[in-house]
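Problem: given the chain below (95 residues), write out its structure.
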Amino acid sequence: MTRILAEQQLVDCAGNYDNNGCSGGLPSHAFEYIKDQGGLSLDKDYPYTAKDGACVYSSDIGSVGIVGGSVNITQGDEVELLNQLFANGPVSVAF
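Solution.
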């Protein structure tokens, strides 16, 4: 079963984490928001609208829990990248 997480929740609700909706933000800050919320809603419950909106997240909607948080890796440190991948699973890379 595929679970598509709600990008729109990040667009609408992660402003206090130095994210700016459709104007962008940092993945590490988005991950901190997700960790603090205890997860992220499913897209079917908080659909994508492709525009900034008011945060309508409610714990009644429910969320998919995500274990962990975020780790910043020094640019070019391939050994640390490998270590984090091995220890924690998937990684997100931003340029």
